UniProtKB/TrEMBL annotation:
Protein origin, superkingdom: Bacteria
Record's protein name: Dienelactone hydrolase
Region (Disordered): 1-22
An MF annotation (GO) of this entry: hydrolase activity
Transmembrane feature ranges: none
Lineage of source species: Bacteria, Bacillati, Actinomycetota, Actinomycetes, Propionibacteriales
Organism field: Nocardioides panaciterrulae
Segments forming domain Dienelactone hydrolase: 18-146
Amino acid sequence: MALLDSWSRGSHTAGDVTHPTWRRGSGPGVVLVHEIPGITPKVVAFAEEVVDAGFTVVMPQLFGEAGADITAAAMLRTIPRVCVSREFTTMAAGRTSPIATWLRSLARELHDELGGPGVGALGMCFTGGFALAMMVDPSVVAPVVAQPSLPFPIGRARRADLNLSPGDLATVRQRAADGCAVLGLRYREDAATGTRFDTLSHELGEQFIRVEFPGKGHSTLTEHRQQEGVDRVLAFFTERLRGGV
C-alpha cells in the first residue's frame, strides 16, 4: 500500500454499488480503469505519468488488492471472481457490462467538480472496452481503449464484439460522428483483442485512431509497455481535454 501513499483514497457510490477510488493530481480529469489483477505497481507508474502531464487522475478499484504485484496467485484469485461477478459481462455478445453505469456516474461527478470540456477515460485489457461504454455519457470526451478483451474472444461473434448493447453502440457511433474520437492501442497479434479493432474501424471510421504495435504482446501501457503508446495517450488527453496546450 506504500506505493499509493501519495494518492488520496476515497470512494464512489452509484445506486447500491460502491467501490474505492484513488486520486492524485490537478488539471482536467481522467478516469483510469486498471487491468487484471488490479491496481499493480506498473498501473500506478503509468497513472503517475498522466498526473505529471497535468491531469487529475482517479483510479477506481474494481477488484484485486491495490498496489500488489502481478503474480500467478493474484491472477488465479482474481479471474474466477470477475468471471462470476454480475458487474461484468464476460461471455455474452451485444451487451454492456453493468459496471458501466457506475463508471459513467464517476466520470460525471469528476466533470461536475473540475469543469472543462469533459474528462478522459482509459480502460485496459479486461476493462479496455469500458471506456467505450463510458463514452455514452457526454462527460467523457477522450476515451482510450487499450487492448480491449471482453467478451472473451471465443468464437467469431465474440471476437468482433465491443461489449456494448445495440443502443449503446448507436450512441457511441453518433458521438463519434459528432467529433468524439476514440484512441485504441494493441499489439497486432494479441489474440485477446480478437477482431475488435476491425469492428471499431468499421463502426467509427476515421474517428477511431488505431495504434498497433508488432508482435504478440498484450499490456501496451504497463507490463509490455510501448513508449509510443504512452506518448500517444498523453497527447490525446492534452488535445481533447486541454485544447492542445
